Amino acid sequence: MSGPARVGRVVVLTGAGISAESGVPTFRDSDGLWEGHRVEDVATPEAFERQPSVVQAFYDDRRAALAHVEPNPAHRALARLEQALGDDLLLVTQNIDDLHERGGSLRVLHMHGELLKALCNGCGGRFAWSGDLVDFPPCPGCAAIELRPDVVWFGEIPNDMDRIGAALQRADLFVSIGTSGAVYPAAGFVQAASAYGARTLELNLVPSEGSHHFDEARHGRAGEIVPAWVDELLGGGS
Ligand code: APR
User: Cα–Cα distance between 36 and 62 in angstroms, integer?
Assistant: First the structure.
């Protein structure tokens, strides 16, 4: 199924800002995760090699915290957009929380992985995971003690880059929501989409580091500006 012809093909990229109003901390805001933790201590393969328990505990805490947060109107608005546009929408998120899915989105590309999955360094298997990993349980597939959070750490290649690249080439509209534009390759998507002729829009609390690359930018809280934008795009349907 495809959406109203006048909308065309849309690629939406989201970041931590879309989950901020749900109570999930962002990374680089004043109360962000990287204020309390050094990236080098918790979000690199080297850190996992050096102090695996510290890394597991960091993600265990974030995984457990998911039980205390709910999707917000911005997540739900993107689920409405998916219903209206069908395959003409590709939703790519940098977030590892499950709030897009709990907000009703059926097809979400988690380019930085998912908290609710574990990855085995032994057999490469991926497993739904809601509990802790700090006690190093055996892999459900190969029984090896090789499980890690299924998240993409700094220095690792994000997921689904081929699919994302192909969608950016074919996009009529690229929209970035709640991301600081500080981390590549996601921060470079606007320029790629623009180079292939897409219109580009930023929806963020404040201008991001890449704000000048966008044709248009609207600033405000995602929970307000995203539903308004979706209503406008779909012609006032809600
Ligand atoms: N509504 C809209 N935008 C918001 C809101 C809100 N309520 N609250 C914060 N923001 C904006 C901030 O202004 C900031 O520009 O969201 C952005 C969050 O930026 P970061 O904390 O840098 O998060 P993100 O861009 O998702 O980080 C990218 O970096 O640390 C790594 O892997 C991690 O996926 C992450 C990547």
Answer: 13
**Residue 26 in contact with ligand 1 by CB distance below 6 A:** yes
Which ligand 1 atom is the nearest neighbour of the CA of 95? Answer: 34
Considering the candidates 75, 100, 110, 112, report the single residue annotated as catalytic.
112
Residue 223 sits at the vertex; the CA angle it makes with 222 and 225, to the nearest 5 degrees, is 55
The pLDDT tens digits of the residues spanning 116-163 come to 999 999 999 999 999 999 999 999 999 999 999 999 999 999 999 999
pTM of the model: 0.96
Query: What's the mean per-residue pLDDT of the chain?
Result: 94
List the alpha helices (DSSP H) in the chain: 17-20, 33-36, 39-42, 45-50, 52-65, 73-85, 99-102, 161-170, 189-195, 222-233
SS3 184: coil
Calpha distance 82→59 (Å, rounded): 29
